[in-house]
Every structure is written in C-alpha cells, then in structure tokens.
Write a structure and sequence with these properties.
Elements: E1 2-5, E2 10-16, E3 30-36, H1 38-48, E4 53-56, H2 61-69
Parallel strand pairs: 1-4
Antiparallel strand pairs: 2-3
C-alpha cells in the first residue's frame, strides 16, 4: 500500500473545448472538478495503475467538504 500526504490539497477544474481557434470565443462543452495536489495526484495515479493507496490531506471548510465528496 502507498500512503501519500498532501499538506495543501486543491480542487482542479478542467474545461473541455471542441477546438482551439485563435481570435474566437471559446465555449466549454463540459467541465469537471477533481481533487488535486501533488500527493493526491500520486494516489490517483497509483490507484489507476491498480494498486492500493491512501491519500491523507486536511479537509476543512467548504472546499474541504467538496474534496471529501470527490
């Protein structure tokens, strides 16, 4: 098992665009919010590779509640 510690977790917002065209208005077709931060990202990659992992991070306030749900 891999244990990661992330003292400063983040929320990563990703927007999906159909294409990038210079000089035009870009409209997202989808967006998502994922947990982030170096240790969290490592745990996500380890889990995607099929291994067991635990991510430890402080989760306080409204952002912490959202991180806990993700």
């Amino acid at each position: 098992m891999i244990l990661t510690v992330t003292p400063n977790p983040s929320l990563d917002r990703t927007y999906e665009l159909p294409e990038l065209v210079r000089g035009t208005v870009l409209r997202a077709t989808a967006d998502r919010v994922d947990p982030g931060g170096k240790g969290v990202n490592v745990s996500r990659a380890v889990a995607a590779a099929g291994h067991r992992t635990v991510a430890v991070a402080p989760m306080g306030g409204p952002e912490g509640a959202l991180l806990a749900r993700l």
